[in-house]
Amino acid sequence: MMAHEVEGTAPVHGAHEVDYLRAGAGVRSWLLTTDHKRIGLMFYVLVVLMLLLGGAFALVLRTELLTPGPTVISAAIYNRMFTLHGVVMVWLFMIPSIPNIFGNFVLPIMIGAKDLAFPRLNLASLYVYAIGAVVTLAATIAGGADTGWTFYPPYSTTTPAGVLPVVIGIFILGVSSIMTAVNFIATTHTMRARGISWGRVPLFVWAIYSTSIIMLLATPVLGLTILLVGLDHVYHFGVFDPTLGGDPVLFQHLFWFYSHPAVYIMVLPALGVISEVVCTFAQRQPASYWAIALSSFGIALIGFAGWGHHMFVAGMSELDAGIFGAFSMFIAIFSAIKVFTWVATLHRGAIQFNTPMLYFFWFLFLFVFGGMTGVAVATQSLDVHWHDTYFVVAHFHFIMVGGTLTAFLAAAHYWFPKMFGRAYSEPMGLLTSFGVFLGFILTFLPQFLAGNAGMPRRYYSYPAQYQWLNVLSTGGAYLLAGALVLALLNLLIALRWGPRASANPWRSRSYEWMTPPIPPEHNFPVTPVIDRGPYDYHLTEEEAHARVSTAR
Amino acid sequence: MNELLRQLLFLPEQRSSLAREIDGLHYFVILVTMGGAALITLIGGYFLIRYRRRPQDTPRPHPGAFARPALFLETVSLFALGFLFLTFWTIGTRQFADLRTAPDDALDVYVTGKQWMWKFGYPGGDSEISVLYVPAHRPVRLIMTSRDVIHSFYVPAFRIKQDVIPGRYTTAWFEANEPGAYPILCAEFCGTSHSEMRGQVIALDPVDYERWLAGGLASAPAFAQKAAAEAENELAEAEPTMPSRGELAAAKHGCLRCHTLDGTPHVGPSWAGLYRAVVPLESGGERVADEAYITESIMDPLAALHRGFPPVMPSYLGQIAPPDVAAIIELMKSIRDVPHGPDVPWDGGVPGSSVTPEGVTP
Amino acid sequence: MPESQPPAEQLAPARLAMQFEDLEKQTHAAHFGMWIFLASEVLLFAGLFALYASYRAVFGHEFSAGVAHNNAVIGTSNTAILLTSSLLVALSVYAVRLDRPTMAGRLLLGAIALGLAFLVLKGVEYTQHFHEGIFPGSAYRFEELPQAGAKMFFTLYFLTTGLHAIHVTAGLVVLGWLTWGCFRRRYGAGNDTHIELGGLYWHLVDVIWIFLWPMLYLMH
């Protein structure tokens, strides 16, 4: 390849190129596109639909729990409903949310690439996801598994509800995850533009990269394990059925070997978003780039060693419990590195305070509190009381909703101008953000107390003394849902009527903001050569711009 | 202090020997956790306000230099945090070992979980459904297994929880430090009536316990009788179908010590496939096992004895309520299609040999 | 039979996709993607291996008896068959690099034939098992080894070999597609990535069998 460099200060983006939204018209141009940005947008639509669906299930569940006895649905429906809520939120919303929407959209631009390494694989991943979603939902609504999203045998192998179709749906979703993960890892490794060494990769890319490693290694084990449960259920293979010589606890080991790392699949991308938001709005480089980048990696690796803490009361020996407890706490240290580094980054910054930053502030409290309660439940003797109670429910919702969902909202606001070229209403954004926080706290703080008081999870009816905590929680759930819908509306309105945004409204140095307001179809006319880091806030915008040149 | 924190955190009363110690760690961990989260948020919030962008900052690039003191502080905090976690872990590990190791002089009780009830078997041969009577101030070890799916035996007031797993035995232990009735909950999702799978631990004064052993529920203190009645109500809610209620009644009256439900031969004829079967009689002739014959056999078993079985069954006349009889018949109807094993007594001995299992008298 | 030298202009050169700067990067990305995909495949089987290891620890005797009952002759022949087919695939990559796609296509055909032979032998073995009443799970009714452990062994045997057979079938489809491409002269020197990646996949299938072979036929 001939590649002689032309030094120049010409803008990287040629003004003549059509943006990706107008690059082709018609349904075909969308459905058969290989453009990572369009695929990201299609994921956006599907995943938000799933969020609304999962949220609707949550509201039904919370409504049912208003009274100790039956309220609106029967126990059998309730059990199917919480299974649906878990399955939809975990596999259809949480896991694909940030990687498949924002990762797809910004990861290639962030490393100066024109697209992902395998664009057709990316499109296939979208369709596989859609098929998986349809299969899972259809199966659950038609027969429905009533096992909870954890599918513990032998209940899941003996229940009269249909388990195999649901499991097949989840298996298909896993295939989609693996496709995406392969794509992201290969892209990050091989497609970085010249000048973007590993030390200049934006932190969000590090997070997505670490997430992809977990997805790649853990998803096959899960897929196989729950498929075996489905086969046990239909053909009585007995791999996990004690009456046929199987061991149900073995299932838990295999399941959590995936599903514990899966927690980090859900939360690591959120941590990546937060790193971007903090650096951009504090207008300074992270207090320690490598601390954030490598702690993602550390979480990904150590995450594989903590699965046993889900089984302290399943008859685990004291030694094993001790080892798993220690590993679990070790993971918290890595998360703490990130938190401290973000806070240190704020120090002496020039902080612009707006909606993504407000979400960051909520995130800071919720993630730290949720994470610290994670250390609490990893403490073996305390876990005995808390295991399978509402305390655990509150703990993982603090991480999953308080952490991932707030980061998802931060990302939705932060990258909104880049994705659609328009600005959302800032006051409305701040207001809905407050609503989300208040609703969240009201929903899940009482659940910690209910768990302390001894209310087990997955309870359709409960002893009457827990009622008022449940009423508070249900009220909070409605508030949270209302705020989320308003936040969504705010963005939808901005989509059509928002004022036009400039190419770099936040004055960020990260590479995705180098493109025009709405990026053109292939991001860059030619692959750029980049001679600066993504957080070089000591340069003026002109200087930063000058260090990006076009090759050839 | 203990009481204040306990109530603030909504913890149940501490009624086992280990509960108070565990709660001590609980307070420590929760206070540190809350404090840490609040501290980080306060610092973050302070920075957000203190270093907010001022109009004059806007055009100027940030110097970008590291704040060395901040990095130093971060490292120190990390080590402090690691040390804190290590403290949690050390105390937690010791307490966990205590929770798992029953004292040698513990009283053994066998626990069977089943959708959706708890059954407690005592070494003496008695068994109870959903109510576990134990002496206070004495360690009790539970040896547990499940007949169907995974359950989890949870007594919040004792701070104990243990999964109950089919095909293997798990153990838990506690020592109630005060007489009283404490709810048992099932903590592992086990099906439709999972949330109704409740029970009561009734801890009695050692004296009362001896009295209960001798005289049954009638001689137990009033609070125990009330709790037992409550547990029975809960059980009825968890068992809405007639056959399952029949199984409960059969267990309650001790029928299942001699009769099986899966066709396995035992002391008495298995109930599997029995309903409307033709039964050969000891006295010659045969009868169809319909409602009339079953009722008759319960009230006066020796009148028309099934051939090949020892005449050991006592009369239940006046012992068993008519609804229970109806429920038991419904149970038999529901297992009519279960294959029936050979009609031989469980020890394989000759018919009429003196098989007298313990505890046949109701 | 000496291969006729192909006219150079008929060989399609490797196409550079829009998103890559140069062919070198593109090839690197393709290889890298394949390798990490294979890592994922290995973990798929790792779950089954973990199950096998755990249950073998529990039911040592029954597992040994089950292994002894399996037909080691068929298992070993299958190993030889797969290894030979892998060799042919490796040779075909070599042939493509020498710019002799027809030769490569013939080698691949040989590999496909061996792959099919593997599946046929597998089918013969399954039929034998079914005749003896060896089925997976609760359908198992083999009277020589009635224990739960033996049942578990054969269930795992069916699961692992079944999953492997699915991979063999997928591999055969890939090889078939590559063969067709070879005969259409789509590959040649400098454009061997597809053959190489297909070959990698086939070798993986082979390597997994190398683990299954002792697990299911030899370790008794």
From TrEMBL, chain A:
<keyword id="KW-0349">Heme</keyword>
<dbReference type="InterPro" id="IPR000883">
    <property type="entry name" value="Cyt_C_Oxase_1"/>
</dbReference>
<dbReference type="InterPro" id="IPR023616">
    <property type="entry name" value="Cyt_c_oxase-like_su1_dom"/>
</dbReference>
<feature type="transmembrane region" description="Helical">
    <location>
        <begin position="289"/>
        <end position="309"/>
    </location>
</feature>
<feature type="transmembrane region" description="Helical">
    <location>
        <begin position="41"/>
        <end position="61"/>
    </location>
</feature>
<feature type="transmembrane region" description="Helical">
    <location>
        <begin position="88"/>
        <end position="111"/>
    </location>
</feature>
<dbReference type="InterPro" id="IPR036927">
    <property type="entry name" value="Cyt_c_oxase-like_su1_sf"/>
</dbReference>
<feature type="transmembrane region" description="Helical">
    <location>
        <begin position="428"/>
        <end position="448"/>
    </location>
</feature>
<keyword id="KW-0679">Respiratory chain</keyword>
<protein>
    <submittedName>
        <fullName>Cbb3-type cytochrome c oxidase subunit I</fullName>
    </submittedName>
</protein>
<feature type="transmembrane region" description="Helical">
    <location>
        <begin position="123"/>
        <end position="143"/>
    </location>
</feature>
<keyword id="KW-0408">Iron</keyword>
<feature type="transmembrane region" description="Helical">
    <location>
        <begin position="262"/>
        <end position="282"/>
    </location>
</feature>
<feature type="transmembrane region" description="Helical">
    <location>
        <begin position="321"/>
        <end position="346"/>
    </location>
</feature>
<feature type="transmembrane region" description="Helical">
    <location>
        <begin position="163"/>
        <end position="186"/>
    </location>
</feature>
Automatic annotation (TrEMBL), chain B:
<feature type="transmembrane region" description="Helical">
    <location>
        <begin position="25"/>
        <end position="49"/>
    </location>
</feature>
<feature type="domain" description="Cytochrome c">
    <location>
        <begin position="241"/>
        <end position="336"/>
    </location>
</feature>
<dbReference type="InterPro" id="IPR045187">
    <property type="entry name" value="CcO_II"/>
</dbReference>
<dbReference type="InterPro" id="IPR008972">
    <property type="entry name" value="Cupredoxin"/>
</dbReference>
<dbReference type="InterPro" id="IPR036909">
    <property type="entry name" value="Cyt_c-like_dom_sf"/>
</dbReference>
<keyword id="KW-1278">Translocase</keyword>
<keyword id="KW-0479">Metal-binding</keyword>
<comment type="function">
    <text>Subunits I and II form the functional core of the enzyme complex. Electrons originating in cytochrome c are transferred via heme a and Cu(A) to the binuclear center formed by heme a3 and Cu(B).</text>
</comment>
<feature type="region of interest" description="Disordered">
    <location>
        <begin position="340"/>
        <end position="362"/>
    </location>
</feature>
<keyword id="KW-0812">Transmembrane</keyword>
<feature type="transmembrane region" description="Helical">
    <location>
        <begin position="70"/>
        <end position="91"/>
    </location>
</feature>
<keyword id="KW-0186">Copper</keyword>
<feature type="domain" description="Cytochrome oxidase subunit II copper A binding">
    <location>
        <begin position="104"/>
        <end position="215"/>
    </location>
</feature>
<dbReference type="InterPro" id="IPR001505">
    <property type="entry name" value="Copper_CuA"/>
</dbReference>
<dbReference type="InterPro" id="IPR036257">
    <property type="entry name" value="Cyt_c_oxidase_su2_TM_sf"/>
</dbReference>
Automatic annotation (TrEMBL), chain C:
<feature type="transmembrane region" description="Helical">
    <location>
        <begin position="200"/>
        <end position="219"/>
    </location>
</feature>
<feature type="transmembrane region" description="Helical">
    <location>
        <begin position="103"/>
        <end position="121"/>
    </location>
</feature>
<dbReference type="InterPro" id="IPR035973">
    <property type="entry name" value="Cyt_c_oxidase_su3-like_sf"/>
</dbReference>
<dbReference type="InterPro" id="IPR013833">
    <property type="entry name" value="Cyt_c_oxidase_su3_a-hlx"/>
</dbReference>
<dbReference type="InterPro" id="IPR024791">
    <property type="entry name" value="Cyt_c/ubiquinol_Oxase_su3"/>
</dbReference>
<dbReference type="Pfam" id="PF00510">
    <property type="entry name" value="COX3"/>
</dbReference>
<protein>
    <submittedName>
        <fullName>Cytochrome c oxidase subunit 3</fullName>
    </submittedName>
</protein>
<dbReference type="InterPro" id="IPR000298">
    <property type="entry name" value="Cyt_c_oxidase-like_su3"/>
</dbReference>
<feature type="transmembrane region" description="Helical">
    <location>
        <begin position="32"/>
        <end position="52"/>
    </location>
</feature>
<keyword id="KW-0472">Membrane</keyword>
<feature type="domain" description="Heme-copper oxidase subunit III family profile">
    <location>
        <begin position="32"/>
        <end position="220"/>
    </location>
</feature>
<comment type="similarity">
    <text>Belongs to the cytochrome c oxidase subunit 3 family.</text>
</comment>
<keyword id="KW-0812">Transmembrane</keyword>
<feature type="transmembrane region" description="Helical">
    <location>
        <begin position="156"/>
        <end position="180"/>
    </location>
</feature>
<keyword id="KW-1133">Transmembrane helix</keyword>
